[in-house]
Amino acid sequence: MSSHSYEVALFGDFFAQDLPAVLNRITLHSQSAHQMHAREIVFEPYDAQTQREAGQEPVVLRGRKELLEPDARWLLYSYLKPESARVHPEATVRPWATCQVVGNALNFASALGYIRRSQIYKRGYVFRRGPLVIQMFQQEQVDLKTHKPIPAHADTLWEVEVKTAAPVRNTPETPLSKYVDAVLEVQLLMKGLLDLRRQDV
């Protein structure tokens, strides 16, 4: 039995013209919904290139901050390589660690030996459904001069992530299969409107 905590997830995307239909169906099957505008930064170890050349996959660190909540703190999290499709053919299951950061997350990541690789803003909606969170968003690029987000073009593709709201452990009481079933339920609910699938990232 592994001591890891995991995220169980499915992913999809759709064209902007389908937004009202997708929004209606997800809202109908969720307990709550609110708007989301988040800043996300990807950090990698300063020696990431050396690690890759040595055949190792560097552990990437991600920072996320919700901009619509005045007291929101930075959340730093890291995913390890997804479990094999042979083990979990229906959903992406990957070891997941998170920590909340008081103060400046960028300095904290830097102190751990990480450098900033990229950043984006995500604007859209967040839904809660039982143990799951469903994020639906358009990516916004960053203005290099002001470092502020540039509103997404109306035709920008919408992305959807259906995933466990918090890291889950694989225990006899809460087997991972329970969470896989929960994301597959959403996949079924969205059938014909949104193709949700597993991805190896």
In total, the number of domains comes to 1
As a whole number of angstroms, the C-alpha radius of gyration is 18 Å
Strand element count:
10
Describe the largest sheet. Answer: 8 strands, antiparallel, barrel
Structural class: alpha+beta
H-E order = EHEHEEEHEEEEEH
Fourth CATH level, the homologous superfamily:
Hypothetical Protein Pfu-838710-001
- By CATH reckoning, the class would read Mainly Beta
- The CATH topology name reads Hypothetical Protein Pfu-838710-001
Family: Belongs to the Mediator complex subunit 18 family.
Subunit structure: Component of the Mediator complex.
Keywords: Activator, Nucleus, Transcription, Transcription regulation
GO molecular function: transcription coregulator activity
List the helices and strands and how they pair.
Layout: E1 5-14, H1 19-28, E2 32-45, H2 48-53, E3 61-66, E4 74-79, E5 92-101, H3 105-111, E6 114-129, E7 132-142, E8 149-150, E9 158-164, E10 168-169, H4 176-189
Antiparallel strand pairs: 1-5, 1-9, 1-10, 2-3, 2-6, 3-4, 4-5, 6-7, 7-8, 7-9
